[in-house]
């Protein structure tokens, strides 16, 4: 355990690690047209610069979370940051698309910083401040996206798109050094093992499913490639479920995932991820469509970035304040409020998007609502599982949010392409509002506030007060 004076530094490092990875994930989005021209590829090929990292992160996140639970967050965090940094350097130096995609895929292993950061926060932050810290951590994704959009224009215009890929390296290298210096050592669990067969099968079905999802619009949803990938995913998923039900130390404890506090939070994460990335596509696209269409604003990439700033700032502030609200009214109510705000923001712009101020108002409500929702689901998962399962449980939650984000991007793109003109954007915003409306019954199903002692007792671990009495007697 870190000394009291070092706890703030440890928590700050966790925040910076998550921020650096979020920036690495989002930084290529504004530069996709430049990457396409610079590497002589197609729009679909350039989009794989984002997809490759997303797929890699989706697989690595629960595996790294499990390793952090078993061997302690420090050694795993050092390894993850070092590997992610190496991948980002390869991507920044790549002269061809395959090499760049390989570097981005290796860099995606850095997605494991999310569950490791939650584990570190659980270990070093006092219980009364933990909800606020988890809320801030959850808002780093939106902040990373905002920073990437703000940096993209000046960096591309002054230095070129390739320098944009060096920006995450500038954050990851100090992160490795600070992690080695600050994060306290922790002991590994006795007789613990890693379910490598489960990890392999998990990676197989997940990569197949997400590849089908990301390529469906280009290949065709009924194409042999997409249908074949979905079939492979289904067969591999069945094999994975069979393995996880039989091994003593599963990668994902399916009994844990069936807890009401966990599955409701995971389902809400899926829908919230959709709402985040649907807006990330619809708002900038609408702003940059030419005025000659009669509904676009003819704005630049900078104008689109400025539109994202208030929403990202609202998301960060909401994440910070969610911890205070958690102590007063509980994460259940925070999730309800976040769903109402996000859904309301989308419903507003679904019917009123003819002026920029309307987009700012709807976007700000969306950002604040998602900040509350993300913080609430993270706190619900952390509170619902025993301490030794925090890494893998939050890793799965992050993974599910990533899947939802992929759905938000793809489905919104299909809607805009399939419904030409203004109707496509109105429908896309309306679908996002309906998605967040579906979070409301999930929030009502969330168990009311209970202490971690109850969660641990359900897994056969002695009650907290019993352990305290035993310790005092000893």
What does this entry show, briefly?
This protein is an all-alpha fold and 474 residues long. It has three domains: 190 residues, Up-down Bundle (Growth Hormone, Chain: A), CATH 1.20.1250; 56 residues; 207 residues, Growth Hormone, Chain: A, CATH 1.20.1250.
Spell out the helices and strands N to C. Answer: HHHHHHHHHHHHHHHHHHHHH
- Quickly count the domains: 3
The best one-word shape is: globular
- The CATH topology name of the largest domain reads Growth Hormone, Chain: A
- Ranges where pLDDT stays below 50 over 5 or more residues in a row are 1-6, 451-474
Largest sheet: none
Q: Quaternary state, please? A: single chain
Any idea what the radius of gyration is? 22 Å
Q: Please work out how many helical segments DSSP would assign.
A: 21
CATH architecture of the largest domain: Up-down Bundle
What CATH first level of the largest domain would be assigned? Mainly Alpha
Terminal residue distance = 21 Å
What's the mean pLDDT score? 79
């Amino acid at each position: 355990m870190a000394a009291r004076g070092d706890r703030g530094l440890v928590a700050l490092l966790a925040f910076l690690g998550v921020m650096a990875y979020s920036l690495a994930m989002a930084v290529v989005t504004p530069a996709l047209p430049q990457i396409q021209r610079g590497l002589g590829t197609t729009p679909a090929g350039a989009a794989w610069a984002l997809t490759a990292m997303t797929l890699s992160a989706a697989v690595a996140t629960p595996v790294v979370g499990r390793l952090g639970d078993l061997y302690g967050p420090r050694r795993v965090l050092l390894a993850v940051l070092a590997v992610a940094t190496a991948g980002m350097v390869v991507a920044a130096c790549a002269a061809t698309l395959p090499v760049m995609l390989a570097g981005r895929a290796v860099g995606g292993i850095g997605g494991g910083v999310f569950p490791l950061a939650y584990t570190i926060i659980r270990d070093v932050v006092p219980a009364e401040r933990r909800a606020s810290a988890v809320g801030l951590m959850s808002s780093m994704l939106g902040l990373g996206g905002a920073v990437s959009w703000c940096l993209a224009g000046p960096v591309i215009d002054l230095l070129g798109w390739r320098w944009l890929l060096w920006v995450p390296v500038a954050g990851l290298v100090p992160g490795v050094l600070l992690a080695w210096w600050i994060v306290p050592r922790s002991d590994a669990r006795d007789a613990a093992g890693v379910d490598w067969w489960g990890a392999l099968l998990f990676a197989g079905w997940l990569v197949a499913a997400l590849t089908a999802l990301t390529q469906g619009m280009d290949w065709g949803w009924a194409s042999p490639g997409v249908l074949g990938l979905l079939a492979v995913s289904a067969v591999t998923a069945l094999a994975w479920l069979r393995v996880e039900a039989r091994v003593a130390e599963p990668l994902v404890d399916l009994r844990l995932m069936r807890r009401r506090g966990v599955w409701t939070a995971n389902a809400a994460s899926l829908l919230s991820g959709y709402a985040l990335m649907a807006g990330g596509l619809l708002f900038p696209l609408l702003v940059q469509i030419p005025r000659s269409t009669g509904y676009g604003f003819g704005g630049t990439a900078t104008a689109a970035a400025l539109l994202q700033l208030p929403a990202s700032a609202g998301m960060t502030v909401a994440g910070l304040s969610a911890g205070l609200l958690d102590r007063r009214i509980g994460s259940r109510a925070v999730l309800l409020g976040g769903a109402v705000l996000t859904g309301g923001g989308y419903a507003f712009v679904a019917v009123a998007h003819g002026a920029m101020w309307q987009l700012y108002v709807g976007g700000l409500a969306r950002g604040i609502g998602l900040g509350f929702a993300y913080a609430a689901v993270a706190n619900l998962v952390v509170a619902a599982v025993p301490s030794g399962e925090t890494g893998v449980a939050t890793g799965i939650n992050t993974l599910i949010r990533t899947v939802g984000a992929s759905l938000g991007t793809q489905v919104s793109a299909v809607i805009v392409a399939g419904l030409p003109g203004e109707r496509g954007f109105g429908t896309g915003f309306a679908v996002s509002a309906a998605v967040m409306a579906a979070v409301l019954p999930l929030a009502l199903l969330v168990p009311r506030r209970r202490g971690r002692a109850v969660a641990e007792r359900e897994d056969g671990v002695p009650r907290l007060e019993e352990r305290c009495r035993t310790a005092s007697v000893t």
